[in-house]
Design goal:
- This protein is mainly α.
- It has a domain at 68-207: Four Helix Bundle (Hemerythrin (Met), subunit A).
- 79% of the residues lie in helices and 0% in strands.
């Protein structure tokens, strides 16, 4: 009797061993965190990085293509090229005349009549510059106007400041005995605004494909 009981107990223990072994993760499918699924796949990060780099290159290429199309749409006509270059020459003359006014104001042989004549030359050059700029602005196409809107607005603001500086020079020279130091300062301000206008004009020229 005891022998049969012993044999039955041994058989029961032997039958339980496979189930215990599987629960402990020792079987072929155990230990999910230790198997291939729980490990990083070789080359996964590299493939992901390569995909991101390809997308970046594609996006950069698209943006470059869009910029090229924008430049083509606003490319200057022959007439606009001439107008932009004429504006550059006109603004350079304003700067030259303004520097001459500063030199006259500081000179020992200062003459009110001579200073007023110089002021008239500055005024004429500024007027010619404004007329040329207005003709250029009116001749812009819809695409050009849309893309250059901020540039043209900035140039208009500079033109208004330039006009104000010339008017201040007029008021100074309207006095019987103008302050030569203030007159020289007004001339420097005119030259400064003209220099800024030239810079803006060159930027517009560049965007429209016009070389100096």
């Amino acid at each position: 009797m005891r022998k049969r009981l012993f044999i039955a107990t041994v058989i029961a223990l032997l039958s339980a061993i496979p189930a215990l072994y599987a629960q402990s993760g020792g079987g072929p499918h155990g230990g999910g965190s230790q198997g291939p699924q729980g490990q990083d796949r070789p080359g996964g990060t590299e493939r992901q990085g390569a995909g991101s780099g390809a997308r970046d290159r594609t996006e950069r290429g698209q943006r470059a293509g869009e910029r090229a199309q924008d430049r083509e749409r606003i490319r200057a006509t022959d007439q606009q090229r001439d107008q932009l270059r004429t504006c550059t020459r006109a603004v350079d003359r304003v700067r030259t005349q303004a520097r001459d006014m500063e030199r006259i104001s500081k000179g020992k042989d200062f003459s009110l009549d001579r200073a007023r004549q110089q002021r008239d030359q500055i005024r004429n050059e500024v007027s010619a510059l404004e007329q040329q700029h207005e003709q250029f602005a009116k001749g812009l196409s819809d695409d050009q106007r849309a893309q250059l809107q901020e540039r043209i607005r900035a140039m208009d603001q500079t033109r208004e400041r330039l006009q104000a500086r010339v008017q201040e020079m007029d008021r100074e020279l309207g006095q019987a005995a103008p302050d030569r130091q203030r007159l020289a300062e007004r001339a420097r301000e005119v030259e400064r605004e003209a220099k800024e206008w030239r810079k803006q004009n060159r930027t517009v020229s560049s965007e429209m494909g016009v070389t100096p």
